[in-house]
Design a protein that fits this description.
This protein has no helices and 11 strands. It is an all-beta fold and 124 residues long.
């Protein structure tokens, strides 16, 4: 069973930076063979995939964070990171990481396991 532990959130002023971390254990086949993603959830809305990284470290970002966020991974530490720069109030939300599976359609889906998430609040 996958276990996910996010950390690093907090309260920051607009324009500031935060780095989130997620330790992922119990992944099928080992952490290094899995794509990983960061999701953001805002009250009343579905979780949104904001960044993903493949096993060979190809990255992809939602338009809303492109150019400001950077996802990376350290396989030896079974950890995925999200560096968030030039934060905006609309970045506020609970951030979750998850293991991603690629569908035949080319889209990605998360595992059914979720951690507790980490709250990011950006003040204006």
């Amino acid at each position: 069973q996958v276990q996910l532990a996010e950390s690093g959130g907090g309260l920051v002023q607009a324009g500031g930076s935060l780095t989130l971390s997620c330790v992922a254990s119990g992944t099928t086949g080992g952490f290094n063979v899995n794509a990983m993603g960061w999701y953001r959830q805002v009250p009343g809305k579905q979780r949104e995939l904001v960044a993903r990284i493949s096993s060979d470290e190809q990255t992809n970002y939602a338009d809303s964070v492109k150019g400001r966020f950077a996802i990376s991974r350290d396989n030896a530490k079974i950890t995925v990171y999200l560096q968030m720069n030039r934060l905006k109030p609309e970045d506020t939300g609970v951030y979750y990481c998850n293991v991603l599976s690629r569908r035949y359609s080319g889209t990605y889906s998360p595992s059914p396991y979720w951690g507790q998430g980490t709250q990011v609040t950006v003040s204006s």
